[in-house]
Structure formats: structure tokens, C-alpha cells
Amino acid sequence: MMSDGTPASYPNQSIPYINYQLPPYSTAALIIWSLLTAIVSLSGNSIILVGTIKHNAIKLDKLSLVLIKNLAISDILNTLLVVIPGMVTLHARGALFQDNLLVCTLSSYLQFVVPIFNSLVVCALTVNKLMILLDPLKTLSGSDMTGYFLVLGAWICGLVPGIEYLIIREREIVFDTRICRCISKWTKSSKQNLWMILDNITSILFVLIPFIVIFVVTIGILSFLKKNSTLQKQKIALVLSVSILHLISFVPYLLYTVLMNVMKPSAEVKYRNSTVAQLYAGASYVNYLNTMCNPILYYFTSASFGAYIRRCTKNWMGRIGRVGDGEMQNTGTTSVGERYSINRA
After folding, report:
1. Is 126 in contact with 238 (CB distance < 8 Å)?
2. Those residues with Cβ within 8 angstroms of residue 198's Cβ, 6 or more apart along the chain or in another chain
3. Which residues on neighbouring strands pair with residue 186, listed in sequence order?
4. What's the chain's average pLDDT?
């Protein structure tokens, strides 16, 4: 076990790991945060899927609805692939990956798929909304088939980094104790600089450019709203809130990436520094906002979805009440209302 944080290995395990442990209070807070994210994401995004597929709970154009449904699917996948495994390993200090190189490798490759897909879909969603605002008659928003093609392209783009890592063998799988995830690191070789350039190109194409497009288009939508005060803001609020949430959740990670590039060539040493390590962990877990908050935003920005949630809640409470009344009748007891009526009589 290396005190400077250089990759070492667990006892009786072949997977190297970065030896930095977050403070106990940070670990406890991140476990609670991960648990909250998992509960809200799985329940909220499942409701979104059921509501949009069966009950037309969100009133948007067909293309936007396709993108909204797939955003919910990607958030559920991110919860299953990243949030829950991270929560388990936070508690067990990597026990999930000990002696299991296959699980660690799959985790390191698949964790890029959902964030890239998410960025591209939010990018398409905001651009489509701006097109509708600028020229509703010429927009392609009426075609759900366009949405399916966009979604397919986004999933393919999300797989590119993983495929790249599979093709390029000059990498090693390392368990990063700062974020309790397996990551893929370059091994020293004569072609390392060439592969890093390819890595940077992939990051620019699938992460940085979509982020810039979302930022610029969001500014454009806000400017359009300012110039057209009579426009019904309810129709724009949902997409606008999704894009703003995406920007907020990704800003810390982008700042960390810029910081690491500015610090070169000493970045490899500072990469293991406690301050930088906690910044990296914080940026990774702030991104959970993007996984859990969409259902909450839809409730407040979509009148139809908010009404659907309230109607579902009322039905569930009614069923619970009927079950409780049935149990009271079977046991011979009376409900509170019945006792009140008896007392008044």
C-alpha cells in the first residue's frame, strides 16, 4: 500500500487501486447522497416512463417526447451502473470489485455511455425547442422517427470511448478509491501521446462541444423569452429547466478537467493530492443531480405531469385507505371517521 496514492493492489487481488481514502464524514455523506439519488431516480424516472407511454402525462411535441423518454431510461441505467455500485463500494471499500476484473473492466468502460448519451440528448432537446420558437412551421418536431434516429446516434456515440479502450490495449484498469469506481488509465508506452490525443478528440466531440451548444442555445432561448413577453412560458419551462440542470451538474467536472490540464506536467502528482482528490469526488457526485432531479423538474414545470402525479398520489392513498378499512372490517374495529360519527350520535 503506497502512502503517496500511487496505484497499488489490494491484498490477494490483481486490480491496482489509487490509495486515497475520503474522510469518514465525507464517505457517510456520499452514501446518504447516493441512496437518495437511487430512490428518487428509480421511482421518479419509472413514473415518467409509465406516464408518457401509457397516459400522455407530458404535453410536448413528438420528437421532444421521444427524447424525454430516453432521458428517463438513461437516468435509470446510470443509477444501476454507477450510483448503486458506487454506494455499495463506498460502504465496502471496493469489496464489489475485489477479485473480479471482469466487473471492474465493464464498469470502467460503461460509465461513459450514459453521460455522453445524456449530453447529446439534452443538446438535441434544447436545439429542437429553439427551432420551434424561431420557426414552428419548418421544424422537424412533428416527427417522432427523427427522435428515434437521434437517440440511436446518441447511444452509438456513447459507446465510442468504450470501444476505443477495447481496441487500444495500452491501458490498465485501476480502482479509484476517491470515487469508488474503476477507471481506465494509460500505461507508459511509445504511443501514449498519440492515444491521449485521440482521447482528447473524443472528449471534445462528445462532451465539450455538446456542453457549449447547450449553453449557447439556452442563452438563445432566454433571450427569445425576454423579447417575447407574451409567449406562454409554461411550454418552454420544462426544456429550459432540463438544460440548466445539465449545465449546473457538469460544470464542476469541466472545471476539474481544465484544472488538470492547466497543472500539467505536474498533474500526475497533484492528481493524487487530497484537495484535488476531493474536488474530483465532489464533481463526480454533483453530477448525480442530473440523474435524480428531472422528475422533480417535470412536476413543477409541466402542468399535465404535475396533475398526473397528484392524481396518482390520490389514487394510491385511496387504495391504501380502502385496504386499511377492509382490515378494520375483518378485525371488527372501526375507522376514525366511524368512531367520530358514533360519538356524535
Report:
1. no
2. 164, 168
3. 171
4. 77
Give residues with Cβ within 8 angstroms of 24, minimum separation 6: none
What does the alpha-carbon distance between residue 121 and residue 131 come to, in Å, rounded to a whole number? 15
26 or 206, greater pLDDT: 206
pLDDT at 337: 42
Q: 251 in the Ramachandran plot: left (φ > 0), alpha (ψ -120 to 50) or beta?
A: alpha
Q: Rounded to whole angstroms, what are the CA distances from 56 to 52, 66, 275?
A: 5, 12, 47
**E strand or H helix at 17, and its extent?**
strand 16-18
**What is the spatial distance between Cα 142 and Cα 138, in angstroms, rounded to a whole number?**
10
CATH of region 7-301, choose from 3.90.215.10, 1.20.1070.10, 3.40.190.10, 1.10.10.350: 1.20.1070.10
Q: Inform me whether the pLDDT recorded for 160 exceeds 90.
A: no
pLDDT > 90 in the chain, percent = 30
Least confident of 26-30, 174-178, 325-329: 325-329
